[in-house]
Amino acid sequence: MEIVLIRHTSVDVPQGICYGQTDVPVKATFEQEAAATKANLQAYEPFDKVFCSPLTRCVKLATYCGYADAQRDDRIKEINFGEWEMKPFDVINDPRMQEWFDDYLHVAPTGGESFLEQYQRVAAFLDELRKKPYGRVAVFAHGGVLLCAQIYAGMVKLEEAFNALTPYGGIVTLSIEQ
Fold first, then answer.
1. Is-contact 57 33, C-beta < 8 A?
2. 3 DSSP β-pair partners
3. Which of 46, 75, 83, 104 could form a disulfide with 111 if both were Cys (CB 3.0 to 4.6 A apart)?
4. Residue ranges per domain, the chain?
5. What is the DSSP string of 43-74?
6. What 3-state class would DSSP assign to 153?
């Protein structure tokens, strides 16, 4: 099965703010960014099924690209930063912050999830997808989800994941055995 992963467009959040599952708005440049993504996506169409994170930044892009009815799935939301959501990183006063910086793979932000927990969530989505009779699927999601999917497919090593972050509006394709 071929999976076409599409990252949402740029978000309207100040630099240095911790956001993940918060439903943040897209930048004023959405139309231009979305038009470029839509044009690039045409090379991969048609799709047997389209999935989408339920967060607005993904739904808006899926809708713009012609997939307003994409199936929403909570497992493809961005990482949950818990109590750190929408706070500037440099003012978060939490003893777990340094632990998280030292080992974000295993340490979860207070009230949130670790990267490995996000990976397990995305892997469960992909495990279920493998059982379906689809040839090509589109998934509108987030940078962290795209990283998890690439790790799952063996394209990126877990320890090097953040060196492979897809740009806003970018597209990554992968194949998984059914």
1. no
2. 137, 174
3. 83
4. 2-175
5. TT---SEEEE-SSHHHHHHHHHTT-TTPEE-G
6. coil
Q: Which string of DSSP letters, residue by residue, matches 93-149?
A: --THHHHHHH-TTTPPPTTS--HHHHHHHHHHHHHHHHTS--SEEEEEE-HHHHHHH
Task: Look up residue 81 and give its amino acid.
Answer: F
What DSSP state is assigned to residue 151? H
CB atoms within 10 A of CB 37: 21
CATH for 2-175 is 3.40.50.1240
CA dihedral 10, 36, 156, 123 (to 10 degrees): 70
> Model confidence at 158, in pLDDT bands (50, 70, 90)?
confident
Q: 96-152: per-residue pLDDT in tens?
A: 899 998 998 899 999 999 999 999 999 999 999 999 999 999 999 999 999 999 999
Q: Using alpha carbons only, give the angle 103, 172, 112 rounded to the nearest 5 degrees.
A: 30
For residue 28 the two structure tokens come to 């004023």
**DSSP states along 9-40:** --B---TTEE-SSS-PPBPTTHHHHHHHHHHH
- pLDDT tens, position by position, 34-71: 999 999 999 999 999 999 999 999 999 999 999 999 99
